[in-house]
Every structure is written in structure tokens, then in C-alpha cells.
Amino acid sequence: MRWFLIDRFTEFVSKQYAVAVRSISLSEEAVDEYVPGIPAYPSSLIVEGMAQTGGILCSQISDFEQRMVLAKIMKLKMNAEAVPGDLLTLRAELQTHTADGAVIRGVVHRGDFVLAEMQLMFAILDDDRFQNIQLFEPAGFCRMLRVLKLFNVGVKEDGTPIKIPEFMLEAEQAELSVG
Amino acid sequence: MPSNEEVFEKVREALMDALGVDDDEVTPEATLVGDLGAESIDFLDIIFKVEKAFDIKIEREELFPEDVLSNAEYVQDGRVTEAGLAVLKERMPFADLTKFEENPIVQDFGNLLTVQDLCNYVSTKVA
Amino acid sequence: MRFTQLDRIHALEKGEFIEARRCLALSEGYLADHFPRFPIMPGVLMLEALYQASMWLVRVSDDFENSYVGLRETRSMKFKGFVQPGDSLDVRCKIQSRKDTLTTLQVAGSIGDEKAVVGRMVLESYNLEERGLVDNYLHTYTISQYKKMFRLLCDQMNPDNPSKLAMSNS
Questions:
Q1: Contact C26, C99 (CB under 8 A)
Q2: Cα C69 to the chain's mean position, in Å?
Q3: Which of A111, A172, C45, C70 is 20 to 30 A from A134 in CA distance terms?
Q4: Is residue A76 less than 8 Å (CB to CB) from chain B?
Q5: Which residue of C has its CA nearest to B40?
């Protein structure tokens, strides 16, 4: 399976909040056969959807320069499972952001119903062990952000659009070269 | 201004929540790192929860003056010097440093803070 | 089976604890995205492994009478280490308390002697047919499939494997 647990962003305000949608389908490997005879979407993947929504919200603050990983699920309450045909709305709100990491509060809705609530903490990888470790290829990461429509809906706090960082544009250009 | 009991109860709740420990483990004497198992990442959580519980702002450098320990002026052969201890005492009036003073090994500094120290710190903030 | 996050169940004591293992291989598709330059097991899959181990413990403890055993809550789930391809995550879940439909567990995963994840979780279990959510066929089918999956997860070449617990009354 691939690891894109949201389909696209619908709202994104830098340093404040992000909203993404995710539709659940019976054709997904993780849905069919997860509970035999009763298709359901694993709750852990809902958490991952929120971790991606919130993680991008947090790492955008540094123009995606900081390497951030999910460090703690501070709280998680699941009120029901998601099932095929559901359209989930994931909303992540930034609660705190420091030199060590960030905390978001996440709420997942199915229509008006609150399916899940959680609080996630992300850590910035900055100690010596991670000195030479990169998580993403900048061009590939940028392409994912484009696919997720981040730059179509994303705005800064003052309402102006979030621009693609220069280092990503350069990496994309380098990747386009056929040689 | 909240009483000492009120401060302790709220701090206890934050620590139970952040560290997944039981209420009987969170005693005033318990050290955050050694006894309750707090790690670097937990302090972000603890500080966040305590800030919310008391509606205060906590600067990590106030609670853990790590800059003193990375200052060559105050450290010699892995131990905090007399001058360093004096600075720590001044910067951390809320902490009981008597035990640390007996054998001020830099590495042990991280395990210094007790639940009571954290309560004392919070009390200075809400006052 | 496609989303099983456990490879083998080593030990299980009804109402008490379970021990299981998850091995990570670079061939797993999602590692290409998580992350392209640093493949590591996503934290939520460690969470899923802990939930699945807890689920088996609850199902077996109740003699597989409930068709539904779902995740309701987690508390302070901390990711302390990375699981890289070639690593095995040893999972141990212990029942802390049970009240009505809810079971609270202490859960942890380790690589060797190093803890990689620790936390607590609450599972809810009930009979989907009794609640009118599925008919008798699906309720019975689900339980029979879980029994078969449990047998697969236990080492069938070991005569003392815990799958006897599932098959004893079927």
C-alpha cells in the first residue's frame, strides 16, 4: 500500500489550522478483510491522516526545512469506525510550536458526527543521531504537496498565498532535466 | 492564588496524563526523569499541559537552565564548578539543589527536578 | 489478513497478557513513502500492532464470543525509537482492568532491550448481532474467520502454541 492517508487539502492557514478530506473505499486493501465480513477502515490510519494533515501544517512553518516526525499521541478518542463510502473531514489546529516540536488538536468529522478526536505531538529531529538523515527528496515532497492541492488553498496568516519554497522549485527543475 | 494542594493536584494530573503514570507514583519527592520516566520529548508535553492548566507561560530555559551546563566557564571535568552551582541556585530558586551539590556531575543534572520543584516553579508563576 | 501488523503470537495468558512479534521488511510498499530517504515503520503501524495484539488477547480471553473488538482510546502513546527494515518489534500487552465492555491495557513494543513505543489503550468489545448491527450469519462468519486468523498467527509447529485456546470449543 502507499502512504497517502489524506486525499487533498481544502483549507490551510499557516500557523493556524488545516482541513483535509479523505474518502474511504472498499477497494482499499486495508479496508476489505480488515474485519472479515464487516469492512472497516483501521483507526490507526485515521490517526495517520491527521498526522499528515497536522504534520504538514507544522512543517510548513519552517518552509518545510525542519524534519518533523510523530512523537506522541497525547490523546485519542475513537467514537466509531469509518466504513466504505464515508467522506471524512480532518481538521488540525496548531496548539503550540516551540524549538523542540509542536502540538496539534485534531477532529475528524463524518458529516456532523465527530468520529475521532486526538492530540498529536511532533518532534523536530535535531540531535546528533540525525545529522545526515533526510526524510524526503525535495522534488518528490513538493510534488506530493502539489497533488494535495496545498498551494491551491494554502494562505499565510495575512491571507496571501503560500508560495512554493525556492529550494523545492530548484529541485523540481533539476528533476525535469532529461539530460 | 491557588493553594499548594491545588497546584500539586493540577501538576499531578498533568504528569499522569503526559507520562501515563498512576496517581500514587506522582509523589512530591519523585524525580521527573528517574522515577516517572520523563524523556526529552515529554517535557514539551508537560510544559504544554501545565501552561494550559494554570494559564501561564513557561520558558524551558527557566525550568532547565541548560545553557549553564554547556558553558565552559561553569563546568570542569564533567562537573559543575562552585561558580556554576551559584548561578544554578540563583536561576533555579524553586529547586532543591542540596543533593546535586554533593556530587554535581553534569550528566545527573537532567534527573534533578522533582514533582515538588515543578510545583514550586508553577507557584512562582501564578503568584 | 492484508493489514495484519503482527507476524507471530508467541505467548498468551487469558485475561492477563499477550506477546507477539512484528518484523519489518523493506519490501513493504508504504516504506517508499515513509520516508523516501529514511524508511521507518510509521508510528501508527506500531499503534496498530499494539491494538491487534490487544485485540487477540481480548478475543481469546472471552472465548471469541464477541464479534466486535475495537479501539476506543489511547493515552500517552509515546514513540521512543525507530523500527527500521530488518528490525523486529516485540509487542507485549497486559490487561490492567476490565469494566463492562471496556478493557484497559498497558502496551509496549521493544526492539531487543530498547523500548520503541509505550502507552495505554482502551478496547471495547461486544456482540454485533445482539446490538442489531449485523445478522447472525455475518456475526458467526466474522468470529470463525478470526479463529482461523489466530491459528495462522500462532506457530502451528509448536504443540504448545496458544491457538489451542481458540480451537478448544469449536
A1: no
A2: 11
A3: C45
A4: no
A5: C80
d(C-alpha C64, C-alpha A69), whole Å: 37
Chain A residue with the nearest C-alpha to that of C34: A3
Asked whether the whole model's pTM tops 0.80, one would answer yes
Residues 88-127 of A with CB under 8 A from B: 95-96, 98-101, 103, 121, 123
Q: What is the 3-state secondary structure (H, E, C) of B34-89?
A: CCCCCCHHHHHHHHHHHHHHHCCCCCHHHHCCHHHHCCHHHEECCEECHHHHHHHH
From A103's Cα to the closest Cα of chain C, the distance in A is 13
Q: Helices H, strands E: what count in chain A? A: 4, 7
Residue A119: name the closest of A148, A81, A140, A91 by CA.
Answer: A91
Mutation choice for B interface testing from A70, A73, A74 by most B CBs within 10 A: A74
pLDDT in tens, B41-80: 888 999 999 999 999 999 888 888 888 888 888 998 889 9
The pairing of strands A8-13 and A154-155 is parallel
Q: List all residues 6 or more positions away from B113 whose beta carbon is below 8 Å from its beta carbon.
A: B31, B32, B33, B63, B64, B95
Handedness of CA A83, A88, A92, A93 (dihedral sign): negative
Instruction: Give the pLDDT confidence of C120-133 residue by residue, as tens digits.
Output: 999 999 999 999 99
Contacts 24+ apart (CB under 8 A), A172-178: A172/A138, A172/A139, A172/A142, A172/A143, A174/A139, A175/A139
Q: Are strands C102-111 and A101-110 parallel, antiparallel or unpaired?
A: unpaired
Query: Nearest CA to C107 among B76, A140, A71, C116?
Result: C116
User: Chain C interface, mutation test: which of A44, A70, A131, A144, most C Cβ atoms within 10 Å?
Assistant: A44
Does B39 sit within 8 Å of C76, measured CB to CB?
no
* Closest residue, chain C, to B39 (C-alpha): C80
CA distance C111 to C49: 14
Report ipTM for this prediction: 0.95
Catalytic residues of C: 34
| Residue pointed to by grid coordinates 502451528 | C156
CB contact A129 to C (< 8 Å): no
Identify whether C35 is preceded by a cis peptide bond (ω within 30 of 0): yes
C132: its cell numbers: 442489531
- Measured in angstroms, the CA of B15 and the nearest CA of chain C are apart by 10
